[in-house]
Design brief:
The structure is a single chain. This protein has 316 residues and is of the alpha/beta class. The protein has a single domain, classed as NADP-dependent oxidoreductase domain (TIM Barrel, Alpha-Beta Barrel), CATH 3.20.20. It contains eleven helices and ten strands. Helix 1 packs parallel to helix 10 and helix 7 packs antiparallel against helix 11. The longest helix is centred in the first third of the chain and has 15 residues. About 3% of the residues have low confidence.
């Protein structure tokens, strides 16, 4: 496993990180989730990403229990706030930042969160209020660094221009061969301002693994067939996309990689990406995905992969 510095922080994070969206505490049994976590540490992953809303606290609770026996300085722990935790608890107001941080610390069984992230932008709360509240979490010692997820470029810029507040060090966008939107505005802006990317869904929620074939039923036991985990995949399970993904398999073989490893290596080719977050329901997936760290791939092969996907995603 190789490690990269996260933005302007002193955090060194593994190129592959383990996430818990739709999985731990929700769609994956506890013993299996713990086995995935153990495999992640065995492979050198040191960065664990979660959020308060994942399972309405269930993912944080699972991680708090599962990480309890490990030295706190042996891993980087990230969580988020914004989405509703109850009928009245949501957003990035001063009161919510204080309340949700304390709840996350309690569930995670820790005194400090290494990276506290705004899960989305809150247009109902003044940015100044949010940033001042977040700055107090850093000043208190309960949070080491701040990040955001899926903020538009103009809001990132606005936060950068505020005086006397803590600075963001990370951005968490969706980014993959199937979704390249961050390349337009967010990545250039972040790269120029010491903000690194921690990308989610680098495998297109598993579609870039190649396990979904256009001419076969969805494999049983996969995310696409799960009531808890498959609700966000319709856009990706279209025939042109699935056919294009199958055409990537010879390119992966040419590079000496599996298809998931090729897709992850493509994400990691971007210098501003510090880590790619994987979701795993089996330890073998963790091991395979970690094989993407540090690999060298001919840029011409990546260009061919991009052309195949771009053709499939063009409007009819």
């Amino acid at each position: 496993m190789r490690y990269r510095r996260l933005g302007n922080s002193d955090l060194q994070v593994s190129e592959i990180s383990l996430g818990s969206w739709l999985t731990y505490g929700v769609g994956v049994e506890a013993d299996q989730a713990r086995a995935c976590l153990d495999a992640a540490f065995d492979e050198g992953i040191n960065f664990i990403d979660t959020a308060n809303v994942y399972g309405r606290g269930a993912a944080e609770t699972f991680l708090g229990e599962a990480l309890a026996g490990r030295p706190r300085d042996s891993y980087v722990l990230a969580t988020k706030l914004y989405f509703p935790m109850s009928d009245t608890d949501r957003g990035l107001s001063r009161a919510q930042v204080e309340k949700q941080l304390e709840a996350s610390l309690r569930r995670l069984r820790t005194d400090v969160i290494d990276l506290y992230q705004c899960h989305r932008y809150d247009r109902e709360t003044p940015l100044e209020e949010t940033m001042e509240a977040l700055t107090r979490t850093v000043d208190s010692g309960k949070v080491r660094y701040l990040g955001f997820s899926e903020w538009p470029a103009d809001r990132i810029q606005a936060a950068l221009e505020l005086p006397n507040v803590a600075r963001f060090v990370s951005s968490q966008p969706q980014y993959s061969l199937l979704w390249r939107e961050p390349e337009r505005d967010v990545i250039p802006l972040c790269a120029a301002n010491g903000i690194g990317q921690i990308v989610w869904s680098p495998l297109g929620q598993g579609v870039l693994s190649g396990k979904y074939h256009p001419d076969r039923p969805l494999p049983p036991g996969t995310r696409a067939t799960s009531e808890e985990m498959g609700g966000f995949m319709d856009r990706l399970l279209q025939r042109p996309v699935l056919e294009a993904v199958q055409r990537l398999k010879p390119l992966a073989a040419e590079a000496g990689l599996t298809l998931p490893q090729l897709a992850l290596a493509w994400v990691l080719r971007e210098p501003n990406v510090a880590s790619a977050i994987i979701g795993a329901s089996r330890p073998s997936q963790v091991v395979e995905n970690c094989g993407a760290s540090g690999v060298e791939v001919d840029p011409e092969l990546f260009a061919r992969a991009e052309a195949i996907i771009e053709e499939a995603l063009e409007p009819a």
